[in-house]
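Final report, Chapter 2: Outcomes

The project's central promise was a pipeline that accepts a single protein chain and returns its three-dimensional structure in a standardized token representation, suitable for archiving and comparison. That pipeline is now operational. To close this chapter, we reproduce one record exactly as it appears in the project archive, with the input sequence first and the structure output second.
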Amino acid sequence: MSEEEKSKKGKSLWGPLLAVPAVFFLAPLGIGLYLTHPFPAKSTKNPMDFGLKFEEIEFFNRKDQVKLSGWWIPATSKQSKKTVITAHGYMNERAMEGIEGLQLAKVLSKQGYNVLMFDFRNAGKSKGRTTGLGYFEKHDLSAAIEYSIQKKKQKMIALLGWSMGASTALIAGCEHPAVSAIIADSPFSDLEAFLKENLSYWTKLPKKPFTPFIYHSMRKLLKIDPTEVSPITNVKNTKGKSFLLIHSKTDEAIPYTESEKLIQSISSDNHKELWLTEDGKHINSYLLNKEEYEHRVIQFLNKYLRVG
């Protein structure tokens, strides 16, 4: 074999060898970077499009001073001391346009509830470049609760969240004494366990060997410990709250068994309800069951929202 042939053979061997670390290390790092720093979703509609009066508001996360933006939608009938704060899902925005969240806000407003809809960090008009999958967002939601109490003088606070926002609502709602009622639509029960089991749904890559690499790259990029985002731990240790969990049996993104685990972990010191819907994709229960969804939510709030 000539020297030229040997050189070509050596080069052909180096190519595949160099491609291995690129696939198993650089690709997971890139995916982790995208999942933790997604492009912010923007709202294209506002409450006025639904005949609602509203106020553009801003407040700050007290932990790291990230500026958050939202809407204050007052109850249409009269001045109210009852407020529902919504918490949107991952890669979503305050209006939850994909499931017509503003239509639900209109129903709540007509029923005598103020509604605060806001963007988590790195979403909509809020600042920040990192999405924390609940780790940072629980502090964002706590800031919204404090805004309602201090700036708007509210006495009764309920939280209504979807997906990541549902899990965040369970954490922040259990931790904040002013919150008495929590509605969680399609939550995960524990972030670490959920990512290790279901990350492949979001990455579209096989669980083995990619999930461990992507999971650890996300941890490094976020500089968080996912074990600290555990709604099931929060609900186990809370008393005197009321919970309504909603989940579709055909949810592929977050299995309905996550809500079943949560509801089973809520102690008898709290009121708890679980509504499992049929044939809906992730967080589509409202789209497919508008009248029943509105009825159940209003009935729950009318009965269990009280001074925290």
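Archive annotation: The chain has ten helices and eight strands.
This record, like all others produced under the grant, will remain available to the consortium after the project formally closes.
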